[in-house]
Design goal:
Layout: H1 11-33, H2 41-59, E1 64-69, H3 75-83, E2 89-95, E3 109-112, E4 125-131, H4 140-150, E5 151-162, H5 166-179, H6 188-193, H7 202-208, E6 212-218, H8 238-252, H9 255-262, E7 267-273
Parallel strand pairs: 1-2, 1-4, 2-3, 4-5
Antiparallel strand pairs: 5-7, 6-7
Helix pairs in contact: 2-3, 2-8
Length: 278
């Protein structure tokens, strides 16, 4: 007797299926990986430096609620709490996984919810941050539209994402089989939808939603050596990583060489401002 052929999923059904898979993966494998980048001194120094570069933009936001979408266990929010010193600010994390339950014991507010539809009222947040989380959302355009709804007039939206370029794609093809032998660091949505995520279109999307934005590329030397979730041998040495970060800073200050180096950048920062009401 022949097997019945299952009907193909519609686009919406497939997306819903992958959202379920993503949550299960984040609750299991993703949860176990969240502490990995901070377990070695070298990689931790690189990630803390990345966060410190975002602090001036966050400080310029009006006092009020700061929401991190895709907060995981709250590493970034704890770093912000320790470093922010400009006015009262309530820090809130939202994540689809059980990792968000790590926030209240650390004195932070946490909400378990889907980052595509934020469970907050209109114009309630002074700042919204995506620290490498936006590409985990299938409908990232819709997610940004909802973030703009939640953002108060005069508020700041900060997006910090991996760069996908010919150079980084080639590097991943060559290095991932060696570095990530025992670690599956890509989530189901990463694997299925990564080609649909267009980081180069984010600025236009934000402009379509009425926000003014600017962007810059960074992290062309130290970050690739961290191994991130795989803890590369280089990541153990804070001294080596700090040397690479000083080299980055020196090159970045040179107009021609800095522009060339940024063509090989691994990270993209976009800062957008929601206009004040007329």
């Amino acid at each position: 007797m022949s097997k019945a052929v299952q009907p193909a999923m519609t686009e919406g059904e497939e997306a819903a299926d992958y959202r379920r898979r993503e949550r299960a993966w984040q609750d299991a494998d993703g949860y176990r990986l969240l502490d990995k980048p901070y377990e070695t001194a070298g990689s931790a120094a690189v990630f803390y430096r990345q966060w410190d570069r975002l602090l001036p933009e966050i400080r310029r936001a009006p006092a009020g609620i700061l929401i991190e979408v895709g907060c995981g266990k709250g590493h970034f929010l704890r770093h912000l709490r320790d470093r922010l010193d400009a006015g009262p600010r309530q820090l809130v994390g939202i994540d689809i996984s059980r990792a968000v339950y790590s926030l209240p014991p650390a004195g932070l507010a946490g909400v378990q919810a889907d980052g595509e539809v934020l469970p907050f009222r209109d114009a309630c947040a002074s700042c919204i941050v995506y620290d490498g989380a936006l590409h985990h959302l299938i409908d990232y355009r819709g997610a940004l539209r909802d973030a703009v709804r939640v953002l108060a007039p005069g508020g700041v939206l900060v997006i910090f994402e991996p760069v996908s370029s010919r150079f980084t794609q080639l590097a991943h093809r060559l290095l991932d089989p060696l570095v990530f032998k025992k670690v599956v660091y890509e989530s189901p949505i990463d694997i299925r939808y990564k080609r649909d995520f267009d980081h180069g279109a984010l600025g236009k999307i934000l402009r379509d939603f009425g926000l003014r934005s600017r962007e810059e590329r960074s992290d062309f030397a130290a970050y690739p050596f961290t191994g991130c979730y795989a803890s590369s041998p280089f990541a153990r040495s804070a001294r080596f990583m700090r040397m690479l970060m000083r080299l980055e800073d020196a090159i970045d200050r040179l107009p021609l060489l800095g522009s060339l180096a940024r063509a090989f950048a691994w990270r993209l920062t976009i800062v957008a401002h929601k206009p004040n009401r007329a």
